[in-house]
Write a structure and sequence with these properties.
This protein is of the alpha+beta class. The chain folds into two domains: 15-88, Helix Hairpins; 95-226, Immunoglobulin-like (Sandwich). The chain has four helices and ten strands; from the N terminus they run H-H-H-E-E-E-E-E-E-E-E-E-E-H. A five-stranded mixed beta sheet has the order 3-2-1-5-8, with no helix packed on it. Strands 4-10-9-6-7 form a five-stranded mixed beta sheet. Strand 1 (95-102) and strand 2 form a beta hairpin. The radius of gyration is 24 Å and the shape is elongated. The two termini are 30 Å apart. GO terms for molecular function: copper ion binding; cytochrome-c oxidase activity; oxidoreductase activity. Residues 92-225 form the Cytochrome oxidase subunit II copper A binding domain. Residues 1-91 form the Cytochrome oxidase subunit II transmembrane region profile domain. It holds the Pfam family COX2.
Length: 227
């Protein structure tokens, strides 16, 4: 959950988000080193009147500033491709949830259970209880077991939506007529908030997502009470 004046990312809840945070720090350090070097060279050129002609025209310098950027790009591309393939893999999910986007609410269906489906609407500001978060609370939360791979099938019934939960590292488009899938695994219990991340109309800001991660026994009791 984000907090006021937060500058960084939310705390990672899934292994994929941990990898994304590590890749962000890795890339940011490379950008920082390049920026420092360029700033140093600019300041050096502006403050000194001496010019070494053999250095400015040297073949070795041109070779270095051609090869070095290529090496840097490879250092960024390889970890990026690794994470992309990790995010795309769906290996032996133990539970499947189908998510449908509507204007302007989400509907969920637990395909492994008979008749376990519901709609999830944002709770209006006037109906919030003390401690509830404005524009983020819903009337029906998505309850999922922690430490288990869960496959989420995502589509839409009207316009483009996007099912996004930052702390889990998830952002998948909901496209009419197309079924996208993603995998999520939470390493700890808790409430995790997200929102629609694709402009979908006048009430785009009022499509929150709330996932409640619980132990397996609690999830089974919840399913029993919903059926």
């Amino acid at each position: 959950m984000a907090y006021p004046y937060q500058l960084g990312f939310q705390d990672a809840t899934s292994p994929i988000m941990e990898e994304l945070l590590q890749f962000h720090d890795h890339t940011l350090m490379i950008v920082f080193l390049i920026s420092t070097l360029v700033l140093y060279l600019i300041s050096l050129m502006l403050t000194t009147k001496l010019t070494h002609t053999s250095t400015m025209d040297a073949q070795e310098v041109e070779t270095i500033w051609t090869i070095l950027p290529a090496i840097i790009l490879i250092m960024i591309a390889l970890p990026s491709l690794r994470i992309l393939y990790m995010m795309d893999e769906v290996n032996n999910p133990l539970l499947t949830v189908k998510t449908m986007g509507h204007q302007w609410y989400w509907s969920y269906e637990y395909t492994d259970y008979d008749e376990l489906n519901f709609d999830s609407y944002m709770i209006p500001t006037m109906e919030l209880k003390p401690g509830d978060l404005r524009l983020l609370e819903v009337d029906n939360r998505v309850v999922l077991p922690m430490e288990m791979p869960v496959r989420v099938l995502i589509s839409s019934e009207d316009v483009l939506h996007s099912w996004a939960i930052p702390s889990l590292g998830l952002k998948t488009d909901a496209i009419p007529g197309r079924l996208n899938q993603t995998i999520l695994t939470s390493t700890r219990p808790g409430l995790f908030y997200g929102q629609c991340s694709e402009i979908c109309g006048s009430n785009h800001s009022f499509m929150p997502i709330v996932i409640e991660m619980v132990p397996l026994k609690t999830f089974e009791n919840w399913c029993t009470s919903m059926l």
